[in-house]
Design goal:
The complex is a heterotrimer. Chain B is mainly α. Helix content of chain B is about 65%, strand content about 5%. Chain C has eleven helices and 15 strands. In chain C, strands 12-10-9-8-6-7-15 form a seven-stranded mixed beta sheet, with helices on both faces. In chain C, strands 2-1-3-4-5-11 form a six-stranded parallel beta sheet, sandwiched between helices. In chain C, strands 13-14 form a two-stranded antiparallel sheet.
């Protein structure tokens, strides 16, 4: 029998995983200096395409692949506008979300009321039988394992590899990076498409694992929460892991707290993560050194090489 | 796989007057073309569909009223935002300021429903402005005091405002005679912005929006404050030499844009909805950001852009009814329109060089310096 | 030739009856939905009703989906009134005031507002369905099938409609097992599949072995299927999503009412009314009873038959409120007004009603 703590933790992990993945992608994008507010749009595209490919082929893994491909292709549209044509990133990101909600709705019309294909857990023998953490860490689906691998991989990439250094330098000062002979455009294209791929993957988690179905607007604002998370984590992948699980826990706590008879307005609980994000932002911003270390200074600014 | 297009942008020394005028037309042309193809693919007569979308809403008087109602909040918010964006302050939380303006402005009619007379409406509008200003002051102060990134704080405060509205309408301000349904009591005669004409429901909010546009245009072009905003945004160093305090500018533009958004909020609540509900905005605050950019941060341009965006909403609704096109389609169409306009706007500030493939085999766009 | 004849007939009839009557083909019925028709819940079911109007009467229809309650709603309704709709169904509570406002300006058009209570002119009707009747049957089934004696209820917002459903459910359960209790989780949304799934998991973790929901998506029944417990579908038959878990579902069937009302417009005898139909009119339909022993299915079917024949009303005394005070005396039935504004729990609900 599963203990109650273990069960709650499993629920929290499920709630946090899509947030974590989408936020990781956005983190890399923002580290390269590109602010993509279209996460919600890319996520919903991932959800519909993941569902579609899985249903078409009967194979949920092809669904995952399809969602990753769709997410990155969709972000390419954004990348072309903001990087090549240097359009305003805020406005373009908002437009991308509008477009994503529209296209996914049209695409998904045929899938309404059809049960999807579930991505089954991959149970790792022996380890999954460990008490408390076994089920939590070693009897999960592929996307969960990928989310943990992504945290470790991105962390190492950003702070331990040359390519990561290049990416951060592009995000901190594209002019200096350019002067050093680094291709700002190429780096930003890749970072943006990586973000799109992650959003697509996060969307696939919604429609292949969380609830195996397609419903319009089913991401219900999680893309925006992912954006908040990136700031909450002050652009550090490890903190993102903590932040995403915290956000997930607050959401689940709301449901559990009710039964304990506390009379807290649910709106206040829902607002807590956002207030916490603001406080974190103030704290890291107060310390100039910390700010310099963490915030991509060129965030949201377009780059055109001066002559 | 990287796209191997060999396009190169060069900054123009100034703004191209030619493209300033023609880029919106090119964008419109491209949208019409892409839209026409899309309509044809979906099995509709493209000419009829385009007519329904862009012309039909303009042929009837009631529909023009509706256009004014839809455009009013967009224009008001975007006009305020233009000051912010011009000075390099990225307030993207206008949605939250809009909501808090609506809430603050509703305090009077909800808490003192028996208070009537000519003073009620002006008081409500002032409360609305104050509510929006107060909400915008938070990211402004966090930026000037602690250096916290205002894009992110203002965005976070949108969610907090949405939840606050939800709480207050379902909780303390719920209509005591409303069977527990989540809405406040309906506003009465003195609390509702009067309609302009008998032919439709456009209200005085439309006039206020026009006044707002003129006011901001005047501030930007004729006053020292407008010059200060411009300088701080374009050349912060020069601004400091001129003795302009960027912190003061930040505070000023945030308060103005928050006030405009708050005003739009109470105008929407009082004029169009006439009570407070758990949700009072279908994303006006975010759409207004797009309007501000479409209008190139110029109050007069914003006026036109607000009307065009409102038209695209109305056209989408008309297409649902008369062509049975789904509202998803309207979303796609609107997204395309925005992309084209944003892309074409690049021409105003940049010159595009298309390089011959043999010269560009190893060029990565944007990399080479000449 | 046939078409010409139909047109002529239509013209003739409508002239005869002073514009009130038309042939079905000349009648246009229009619908305003609050969500996307792809929600597979509330708006989806209303749209099924619209399709029935088309297929059964041959009337023309039109709809607008995802219409925000507020300024946009009034425009949507007015657009329909102007575009030749003869009858307009506005299918969300939040459309109440806009519906009445537009109705005053278009006295020749009929307006039907779902779940509201204002009829400010003679061309406005209000209608709703007694979904709570189905909840009572669900409660009976739950009490029979459950081994833990606790069911879970995923609730959206504490409006009377939802509170009624919770009360009817516990009354049904207690009619079988007086000690049965009900845990309620408020998710504060009508529509967020992932959050609904979270709520379902939370309830399972708390030891319930049956879940019912008053939110729209299929997420909760899917969780039940995965966790091997039982659940009830909501708004539509969700058996495809939970073949081993769904006991039954309350189906919102708007088709009979929509067909009846559009036909009334065609026949020229439409009148303003306030109806609250239930199983007797086919507005509330139970999906086939599955995944339960035969005797339970039999009990459920018997109760269903009694409610359908108006021989039984779930809110019949003796019923105590949650605080122990008496609400209904032996044999007394609830007043419609109390039900419409229901803001209290009956005894046995393990929750405090949020305010």
């Amino acid at each position: 029998m599963m203990g109650i703590v273990e069960a709650i933790m499993l629920t929290i992990v499920a709630a946090a995983t899509p947030l974590l993945i989408a936020a990781l992608g956005e983190l890399v994008t923002e580290r390269a200096g590109v602010l993509n507010l279209g996460v919600e749009g890319m996520m919903i595209m991932g959800a519909v395409s993941g569902f579609a490919f899985a249903l078409m082929t009967g194979n949920p893994y092809l669904g995952v692949l399809g969602a990753i491909a769709t997410g990155s292709l969709f972000s390419l549209l954004f990348a072309f506008l903001v990087i090549t044509l240097v359009t305003n990133q805020v406005a373009t990101g908002l437009a991308l979300t509008i477009l994503g909600l529209g296209i996914s709705g049209l695409w998904g019309e045929a899938f309404i009321g059809i049960p999807g294909v579930k991505l089954q857990p991959i149970v790792i023998p022996y380890l999954s039988e460990l008490p408390l953490i076994g089920k939590l860490l070693f009897a999960q689906d592929l996307i969960f394992y990928m989310s943990i691998a992504l945290v470790v991989g991105i962390s190492r990439f950003l702070f331990k590899s040359r390519a990561g250094l290049v990416l951060r330098s592009v995000g901190d000062s594209h002019d200096s990076a350019h002067a050093l002979g680094i291709s700002v455009t190429r780096t930003r294209y890749l970072a943006t498409m990586f973000g799109g791929a992650c959003s697509g993957l996060a969307g696939a988690y919604m429609s292949l694992v969380y609830t195996t179905q397609w419903i319009e607007d089913m991401t219900a604002g999680r893309g925006w929460i992912a954006l908040a998370l990136v700031v909450f984590a002050s652009w550090r992948p490890n903190r993102l892991l903590i932040g995403a699980y915290l956000f997930g826990a607050v959401g689940i706590a709301q449901l559990h707290i009710q039964a304990l008879g506390f009379k807290i307005p649910p709106q206040l609980l829902s607002a807590l993560p956002y207030l916490a994000t603001i406080i974190v932002l103030v704290i890291i911003s107060r310390n100039r050194r910390l700010t310099m270390m963490n915030t991509p200074a060129a965030l949201g600014r377009g780059f055109v090489p001066d002559r | 796989m990287l796209p191997e297009f060999s396009v190169r942008l060069e900054k123009r020394s100034g703004i191209s007057g030619f493209y300033s005028f023609f880029s919106p037309l090119i964008a419109l042309g491209l949208t019409v073309l892409a839209g026409g193809i899309l309509f044809a693919v979906m099995g509709h007569d493209p000419f009829k569909a385009l007519y329904v979308y862009f012309v039909e809403p303009l042929t009837e008087v009631w529909s023009l009223h509706e256009l004014a109602i839809k455009a009013t909040p967009l224009i008001l918010i975007a006009t305020g935002l233009s000051l912010c964006f011009r000075s390099g302050n990225w307030n993207i939380g206008a949605e939250g300021q809009f909501i808090m303006g609506g809430v603050a402005g509703s305090a009077l009619p909800v808490l003192f429903p028996d208070f009537t007379g000519f003073a009620v409406l002006p008081a409500m509008l002032v409360c609305g402005i104050a509510g929006g200003m107060a909400w915008a002051a938070i990211p402004a102060l966090l930026k000037t005091r602690f250096g916290a990134n205002e894009i992110l704080t203002s965005l976070m405060l949108v969610y907090v405002a949405e939840l606050f509205l939800d709480w207050i309408v379902r909780g303390p301000w719920r209509n005591p005679e409303g069977f527990n349904f989540p809405e406040t009591r309906g506003f009465t005669e003195w609390q509702i912005l009067p309609e302009l004409l008998d032919s439709g429901r456009a209200h005085f909010g439309a006039l206020i929006a026009i006044l707002g546009v003129i006011l901001v245009w005047f501030v930007l072009t004729k006053t020292i404050r407008g010059f200060e905003i411009e300088v701080v945004g374009q050349a912060p160093k020069a601004g400091r030499f001129a003795g302009f305090d960027p912190k003061r500018t930040t505070l000023f533009v945030f308060l103005v844009s928050g006030g405009f958004a708050g005003l739009a909020g109470i105008i929407e609540v009082s004029g169009a909805i006439q009570q407070l509900r758990p949700s009072i905005s279908p994303g006006y605050g975010f759409t207004a950001i797009i309007v501000a950019f479409l209008g190139r941060l110029n109050p007069l341009g914003i006026f036109v852009a607000g009307l065009i965006l409102a038209l695209s909403y109305l056209g989408g609704e008309a297409a649902q009814v008369s062509l049975q096109l789904s509202d998803k389609f309207a979303n796609v169409f609107q997204g395309l329109l925005l992309f084209f306009v944003l892309a074409c706007d690049t021409l105003v500030h940049h010159r595009i060089r298309i390089l011959k493939p043999e010269h560009s085999h190893q060029d990565i766009p944007g990399q080479e310096v000449t | 030739m046939k078409k010409l004849f139909a047109t002529l007939l239509g013209l003739g009839l409508s002239t005869l009856a002073f514009g009130g009557t038309a042939s079905a083909a000349d009648t246009k019925a229009c619908f305003v939905y609050v969500g996307p028709i792809g929600d597979f819940g509330w708006s989806y079911q209303h749209d099924q009703g619209r399709l029935a109007v088309e297929s059964e009467l041959g009337a023309a229809t039109a709809y607008q989906e995802s219409v925000e309650e507020g300024a946009d709603a009034e425009r949507a309704i007015e657009r329909f009134a102007r575009s030749g709709c003869n009858i307009i169904f506005t299918t969300s509570f939040g459309y109440m005031d806009p519906t009445n406002k537009v109705a005053k300006r278009f006295p020749d058009v009929k307006f039907e507002h779902a779940t509201g209570y204002k009829r400010e002119s003679t061309n406005v009707s209000t209608y709703s369905s007694k979904f709570y009747q189905g909840r009572y049957i669900q409660g009976q089934i739950a009490a029979k099938v459950s081994s833990t004696g606790v069911a879970g209820y995923i609730a959206s917002f504490p409006i009377p409609e939802v509170v009624r459903g919770i009360n009817a459910f516990i009354l049904g359960a207690q009619s079988v097992n007086p000690d049965f209790s009900l845990k309620v989780v408020w998710v504060n949304t009508w529509f967020d599949p992932a959050k609904e799934a979270d709520a379902a998991k939370t309830l399972v973790d708390k030891g319930v072995d049956i879940i019912t929901q008053h939110t729209d998506s299929t997420a909760a029944v899917q969780v039940a299927e995965e966790r091997g417990i039982k659940a009830f579908g909501q708004a539509s038959d969700m058996i495809k999503f939970a073949p081993n878990s769904q006991l039954t579902a309350i189906i919102d069937d708007w088709a009979p009412y929509y067909v009846e009302r559009v036909k009334a417009v065609v026949d020229g005898n439409w009148g303003s009314q306030d109806v609250w139909h239930g199983m007797d009119h086919g507005s509330v339909v139970m999906a086939p009873y599955r995944n339960m022993p035969d005797d339970v299915a039999k009990l459920a079917a018997e109760t269903e038959a009694k409610i359908k024949a108006n021989e039984f009303e779930p809110f019949t005394g003796p019923i105590k409120k949650q605080d122990g005070s008496e609400w209904l005396k032996e044999g007394e039935t609830a007043k419609i007004g109390t039900l419409l504004g229901m803001d209290f729990y009956v005894a046995g609900v393990d929750d405090q009603l949020p305010n």
